[in-house]
Amino acid sequence: MSNFVSDIAFTPAVKMVQARKGSRDTYARAEMKGMMKREITDDLADFIARQRSGFLASVSSEGAPYIQHRGGPPGFIKILGPTTLGFVDFKGNRQYISQGNYSENPKAHLFLIDYMYRRRAKFWGEVTVIEGDLELQRKLMPTNYNGHPEQVIQFEISAWDLNCPQHIPQRFEAEDVERALGERDSHIAKLEAEIAALRGTAD
Fold first, then answer.
1. Pairing with 60, which of 124, 148, 172, 187 sits 20 to 30 Å away (CA)?
2. SS3 147
3. pTM of the model
C-alpha cells in the first residue's frame, strides 16, 4: 500500500536508482512535504486553462508505449471534478491506438508544457473513453472551434506534479507575436504622426 501520492511515480525500482545515484534523501524529504498532489489546486487550474495542447500516453497489453498529441484552443481541457479532467476527442486518422490500449489498460499519463511561461505539468492516472454522451460532448466542446467531436476522454488523476523551468526553451504562440507586433507598429505610426505634426507646427 502506498504511503505517499508520489509512490505512483517513485516505485521501489525508481527509489533504488535514486539511492544509487545520490538523490534519494532529497526526494524522501520532498515526499514528507507532499511533493505530489492528487486534487487540483487553483494554481494548477489556472495553468490548465491556458494550455492549447498536451501529450497523452498509453501502454498496450504487451507493454508497448504510445504517445498521442491532443490540442485545441486555450482551455480545451476542462476540470470536471477535484481529481477529474475531460476533453473532447476529435476525429482524426482513425487508427484508435490509444483507445485500443485503454480498453486493455486504462493507466495513462498526461503531459502539459507551457513554453511561454516555461512550466510543465505531469499527470498520472486512468483514462475512460466515453462514447455517445452528446450532452457531455456539448459541455466540453470549445466554443466556435472547427473540429468534429467523436467522443470524450475523461482523465482521473492519481497524482500530479509541476516541474521547474530548467531546460525548457521559451517560445511564443504565433498569434501572440502577431498581436505584439501589431501593437508595436500602431505605436510607431502614432509617434510618427506626432513627429510630423510637431514638424508642421515648427515650420
1. 148
2. coil
3. 0.82
How many other C-beta atoms can be found within 10 angstroms of the C-beta atom of residue 36? 20
Top-ranked range on mean pLDDT: pick from 32-36, 70-74, 111-115, 152-156: 152-156
Q: What is the CATH number of domain 37-172?
A: 2.30.110.10
What per-residue string of b and e applies to 52-86 under the rule 16 or more CB within 10 Å gives b? Answer: eebebbbbeeeeeeeebebebeeebbbebeebebb
What are the residue ranges of CATH 2.30.110.10 in the chain? 37-172
Q: CA–CA separation, 95 vs 119, rounded Å?
A: 31
Distance, CA of 66 to CA of 152 (rounded, Å)? 19
Other CB atoms within a 10 A radius of the CB of residue 158 amount to: 20
DSSP 9-78: TS-HHHHHHHHHHT-HHHHHHHHHTT-SBSSPPHHHHHHHHH--EEEEEEE-TT--EEEEEEE-STT-SE
